[in-house]
Amino acid sequence: MKITQAEFIISAVGPAQYPEDGMPEIALAGRSNVGKSSLINRMIQRKNLARTSSQPGKTQQLNYYRINNEMYFVDVPGYGFARVSKTQRQAWGRMIENYLSDRETLRLVIQLIDLRHPPSKEDCMMHEWLRHYGVPICVVATKADKLSKNQRPKHMKQIRTSLGLTSDVPFIMFSSETGDGREELWDIILQHSQADDEIDEHEIEHDAAVVSDAQE
Q1: How far apart are the C-alpha atoms of 34 and 113, rounded to whole Å?
Q2: For residue 26, what is the enclosing H or E element?
Q3: Distance between CA atoms of residues 84 and 106, nearest Å
Q4: What is the model's pTM?
Q5: DSSP string of 116-172?
Q6: Mutual orientation of helices 36-43 and 182-193 as an angle, nearest 10°?
Q7: What's the burial of 190, exposed, middle or buried (CB within 10 Å: 0-12/13-18/19+)?
Q8: Are the CB atoms for 90 and 119 separated by under 8 Å?
């Protein structure tokens, strides 16, 4: 995937601030400090568009990044950070739930899991919630470069088992440091973001056939 344009658009706190141009949205969800910003930067081959932070839980809004004027990456607030107040966590939870369940332009949720550690209770709950509501998911195991190649299969299996991953959910090992997994993830993103175009083309072909049959 060649990136010709990438820019930060808005930090949105509710539907009134979401973009209204109808472009497909790819959301990134995961625990605080799992590497969402680093993944975005690696995917678009930019160092600092999505700002990483040494303070987990800093992202409190939905951060929109427009890519090639074709789609948005949406950085969702990280979950599971204890220093955030209970009231703030509940507010974020409602915002995230409403976005993930109601946003019509959402095409895929990339759920990030740190490869080095077993999925947390929050990771499992998020995955179950996404599956329950039928949201398209791709699970990405981040920070692969932190483990040796011999260690990785065991940790991948642990994630697969803990989340109860089924064969219909793509599962990718990723490293923001080396770029491993980038092209594979782009393939999945494009598959989902371009689905509407394929549907529109089929509808146009169908409509044209109906008109032709009527004329005959």
Answers
A1: 7
A2: strand 25-30
A3: 27
A4: 0.85
A5: TSPPPHHHHHHHHHHHHTT--EEEEEE-GGGS-TTTHHHHHHHHHHHHT--TTS-EE
A6: 80
A7: middle
A8: no
Please tell me the total number of residues recorded for the chain in this structure: 216
Q: Which domains does the chain have, with CATH numbers?
A: 6-215 (3.40.50.300)
Amino acid sitting at position 39: L
Cβ–Cβ under 8 Å, residues 67 and 73 = yes
SS (H, E, C) 32-77: CCCCHHHHHHHHCCCCCCCCCCCCCCCCCCEEEEEECCCEEEEECC
Which pair of structure tokens corresponds to residue 69?
Answer: 């004027």
What is the residue whose two structure tokens read 């995955």?
A: 127
pLDDT tens sequence for the chain (216 residues): 889 999 999 999 889 999 999 999 999 999 988 999 999 999 999 888 886 554 444 557 899 999 999 999 999 988 765 455 666 666 667 788 889 989 999 999 999 999 999 999 999 999 999 999 899 999 999 999 999 999 999 999 999 999 999 999 999 999 999 999 999 999 999 999 987 654 444 444 545 444 445 455
